[in-house]
Design a protein that fits this description.
It contains 8 helices and 2 strands. It is mostly helical and about 260 residues long. The protein has a two-stranded antiparallel sheet with strand order 1-2. Helix 7 packs antiparallel against helix 8.
């Protein structure tokens, strides 16, 4: 009889333990994962707000605040205009000369085509050629004129016209060798006439070269001269028509 009375008591104690365990589990679940209907008490909420934030959270909030201020701040259009005006030189348009204009300028005034092409280092060469041709033309022309007059004077047998004596030593007698000096003055006259004419052709040649140089320089101003262009000479084995191999040089032009 006593054994049967102990069963209801044990059953009651078991139900009490289950009830207390369920309350603990429910309390832990509510604290860790609160339900949407659960509201925090005002005092607990105030304590949570007074709690200091971690350093990482403060840095993130500060960065967000700076980004927000940068977005909402007005745009400085003046600084944008300055940045737009200060474009690097590599983005500016490359100036390419006009070949026809360079030719006309070089034809109207020697050296103007080189100035138009911005090749100023060629001006001393061109003007040096002109100065040399003018000097040669002046010198040979003067000598030709003097020897021509001397040849005319020695050929007319007139004692009053003796300009040829200026080319001989003072007091020199040429009566015994008159034919020799006549031939000598004739050769001198022809010599300086030839070089006078050659100086004229050289002057015209320098003028034409200045025009051609201005045209070619303007025409090839946009020619590609990168590292991809080049010529390479290297030894190679060449097979002839008989099927035999021979050693030679191979020229490779790369475009």
């Amino acid at each position: 009889m006593k054994r049967f009375a102990a069963y209801p008591l044990a059953t009651l104690l078991l139900f009490c333990c289950i009830a207390f365990a369920g309350q603990d589990i429910h309390a832990q679940t509510t604290e860790e994962t609160p339900d949407s209907t659960w509201t925090e008490k005002p005092k607990a909420q105030l304590r949570r707000m007074r709690r200091p934030l971690p350093a990482d959270t403060l840095a993130i909030e500060q960065a967000n605040q700076e980004n927000l201020e940068g977005i909402t701040s007005p745009v400085d259009t003046a600084s944008l205009i300055v940045k737009k005006d200060s474009i690097p030189e590599i983005y500016k348009k490359i100036w390419v000369p006009n070949p026809a204009k360079a030719v006309w300028l070089a034809a109207l005034f020697p050296g103007a085509g080189q100035i138009y092409n911005k090749k100023y280092w060629k001006l001393p060469i061109i003007y040096g050629g002109f100065v040399g041709c003018v000097y040669a033309l002046t010198w040979n022309g003067q000598m030709y004129s003097d020897y021509s007059q001397a040849y005319l004077d020695i050929m007319d047998n007139n004692p009053n016209t003796n300009s040829f004596m200026d080319f001989l030593p003072e007091g020199y007698d040429i009566s015994d060798r008159m034919d020799f000096y006549k031939e000598s003055f004739r050769k001198k006259k022809d010599f300086y006439r030839r070089y006078r004419d050659l100086s004229i052709f050289c002057f015209i040649g320098v003028y034409l070269i200045s025009i051609i140089d201005a045209y070619v320089d303007a025409e090839l101003s946009d020619f590609d001269i990168t590292k991809d262009l080049g010529m390479k000479i290297e030894p190679a084995i060449i097979q002839n028509s008989r099927g035999n191999n021979s050693v030679g040089l191979q020229c490779c032009i790369k475009f």
